[in-house]
Design brief:
Helices cover about 30% and strands about 15% of the residues. By secondary structure, the protein is of the alpha/beta class. The protein has four domains: about 90 residues, ADC-like domains (N-terminal domain of TfIIb); about 240 residues, Rossmann fold (3-Layer(aba) Sandwich), CATH 3.40.50.740; about 190 residues, Dimethylsulfoxide Reductase, domain 2, CATH 3.40.228.10; about 120 residues, Barwin-like endoglucanases, CATH 2.40.40. The protein has a seven-stranded mixed sheet with strand order 6-5-17-16-15-7-8, with helices on one face. A hairpin with an 8-residue loop joins strand 2 and strand 3. The longest helix is centred in the N-terminal third of the chain and has 19 residues. The termini are far apart. The structure holds ligand MGD (2 copies), iron/sulfur cluster (SF4) and molybdenum atom. Molybdenum atom binds next to loops. Keywords: Iron, Iron-sulfur, Metal-binding, Oxidoreductase, Signal. GO terms for molecular function: iron-sulfur cluster binding; metal ion binding; molybdopterin cofactor binding; oxidoreductase activity.
Length: about 725
Amino acid sequence: MPDTYSRRHFLKLGTALLAGGAAVMGDAVPSRGMGFRGRAEEKEKILKGYCPFCQVRCTYLARIRGGKVTSVAGHPGNRWTGGAMCPKGLSILELMNSPYRITEPMRRLPDGGWERISYEEAVRTVADRMREVLKTHGAKAADRVAMTMPLWDCRESEIAALMTLRTVGSVHAMPPGESCVSSASNMLGDMVGVNCGTVKVHEILNARTLVLWGANVADLYPPYARWLQQARERGVKIVYLDPRKTRTSLLCDCQFRPLPGTDGALAVGAVRHILSTGSYDEARARFQIDGFDELAKDCEGFTVDKVAAVTGLSPAEVLDFYETLAASERTIVWLGGSLSRYTNGITGLRAIILMQALRDNLIGEGRGMLTFQSGKPGGDEEFVDHFFGENTKPKMNFRRLRNAMSRGKIDILFLNSSYRRYPDSKGVREALAKVPFVVHCGFFLTEESEAAHLFIPATFGPESQGSGYGNEQQAVWREQLTDAPGSCAPSWRFYRDVGRLVDPERYPDFRDPEDMYRRFTELVPSWKGMTLERLRKSPDGLVWPLFSADEPERTGCVFTEGRLLTPSGKMQAAHRVFGRLSDWDYPKGSPRSKDHKEGYPLILIQGKQLWHWQQTLTNFATAVGQFSSGRFISLHPRTAAELGLKQGDKVMLETFVGGLEGWVDITENVLPGTLFTPSNLNATTPLPENRGTHISSILPNYWDKISCQHNGVGCRVRKIG
Ligand SMILES: Nc1nc2c(c(=O)[nH]1)N[C@H]1C(S)=C(S)[C@@H](COP(=O)(O)OP(=O)(O)OC[C@H]3O[C@@H](n4cnc5c(=O)[nH]c(N)nc54)[C@H](O)[C@@H]3O)O[C@H]1N2
Ligand SMILES: Nc1nc2c(c(=O)[nH]1)N[C@H]1C(S)=C(S)[C@@H](COP(=O)(O)OP(=O)(O)OC[C@H]3O[C@@H](n4cnc5c(=O)[nH]c(N)nc54)[C@H](O)[C@@H]3O)O[C@H]1N2
Ligand code: SF4
Ligand SMILES: [Mo]
């Protein structure tokens, strides 16, 4: 057994790296040995920043000469990434300098064309429009203005935008979470009292078993693959649950491949197995779980045979999985985003968390849960309320906003994201067409700009300073590396300028993100110790919260008092709204569910690829586009044979909502009866390898009680051409 990886050792390492990092950090310093002997003002500078894309939040060191960024490389002092960055993040230089980038604001003309306008005019147009809505609707204006939010370039942009909405009283900002992992974060919040990971990634080195539950770490968080490698070297058993073989499969000791959307049954069966074999401490379980007495009854139907029939695993495999869990003293479960992408996801997630609680795997070393997002650091609401007064209004979710748009009840929509992130994106597009004023902040001509009346060119991360946050609950700081081209404006500036025009009395006149950040640390207690000085020095940021400047970071288990962080210190086995384990059923629209549609026998999964970031940006970069294979549709050899399809056949992939074209890729990486296709392609990129009808256009508008869903629906494939 590996000896316990000491937290002290980890902290020491972190501090050493931090000290090393500080030598190059702080103010810009000239780099050595570059072989140039330019004038003093042309000296090369090295500045620090972080990648604006995924939640790993890789920090980097960038070289700048003559005001231009010449290179970006992962920060070697980053304890979470080990100095790595993935190709998506590195494509930022190409994206910044892309010839396809739109760098001036544009207004839609009556004939459908665009007219270039100045930044000042764009800001004035938006502010006038907001004042008009206020004049016409008074207090009701609040429900006529809404916003979709991206994973912003920095937190200050996000806060600035929230405040702009508040100038008309609106709180209707749609976070990406609704189409991301909010089922997982809500279940964790409800059951253990924190809406994100309960440990940091390094804790997996202290576990005996690591379960990657739909967590395709190697493709989705490449810099974390090294943690899996290290864990394996230390003898941690890595078990991967994914219907698909991926790059992560190579890093694991074993993989189980349940049919898509059936993990919940497997997890409820695990709870049953633990209870029926007595492999738990009853006194402790009763202490931690409210409703413990009903649990056995709730999962009694989920016998090994039943679970095997549902998941498509053999009874021996199901038992093997359960016995691995029962034999493990310390288990960490890493929840993949895909668990949140099925209408039955919340029940499965509840069962996984209960399974961890029963085996006493939530509190203490080598135990806990990791997720595929960072959780939201507190303080935004406090901060915004400080200027605009306390908000008591409930927020719409996107499902309601979509209805409101369709009924002509929304006058202004700030579209700061793709609309293709929501299922039934064609329906979303139709709803958008009913909004008289859509403002899109973006970078390229996309489906979103086609839907907009005003286009505001935004800046890429390195073109402005600001703070961000990541998976390890770490906040990071980025310096501005270079000026943005043309009239591109960072979102914090655009929203500040609009907000100041609409409501100069209340909207704070902050100068830049640094100014806002400093005010934030003064106002929000949990951020008091997260001083900008400390943040700037650190090579990988600071783990929140820090209530004072001399407090050390907390990188261990979040349950420091030995109890859960829910108000009662306990978790509920069942929930009034989210249901109980006995509610588990196939996901909506699945060929196996009661409400399935005839004629769509295959199960569809779609997902992300290593070299692409979400729906939009990297589709415009050749550096990553070169790895793209367009709209391929992976089918198992048996399924392909049954359908009479050959490798490379051109096919139509159809759900009951619609169809799109692709080509057949025959591979055992997918299960018989299922198919996989990538989620990133879009229709307007000039790069043919990334061009295609977006997958959300054929996904039904399904939601669970929390979020919208992307996977598991029935589909069919037929040959064309
Ligand atoms: N390369 C890349 N990495 C990213 C992103 C990106 O756009 N590109 N986005 C980031 C963001 S915002 C997020 S939220 C995360 C999360 O991203 P995820 O939502 O987790 O990513 P997916 O690729 O949709 O799914 C991950 C894996 O789940 C598997 N899967 C599908 N259905 C099931 C199922 O029923 N059961 C099980 N056990 N597994 C299933 C898929 O085969 C796939 O390998 O990724 C982050 N990382
Ligand atoms: N079918 C399908 N749909 C999915 C997923 C999937 O796997 N499959 N994954 C889901 C997940 S996990 C997520 S997180 C979402 C992500 O969905 P989105 O948030 O829509 O992701 P992107 O495509 O990255 O959106 C990029 C756009 O956001 C805007 N933007 C980016 N940064 C800024 C900024 O700083 N300021 C402003 N004003 N605008 C900015 C730009 O217009 C840019 O073009 O998609 C979800 N939707
Ligand atoms: S892993 Fe995530 S944060 Fe790191 S470079 Fe890639 S996209 Fe950026
Ligand atoms: Mo996401």
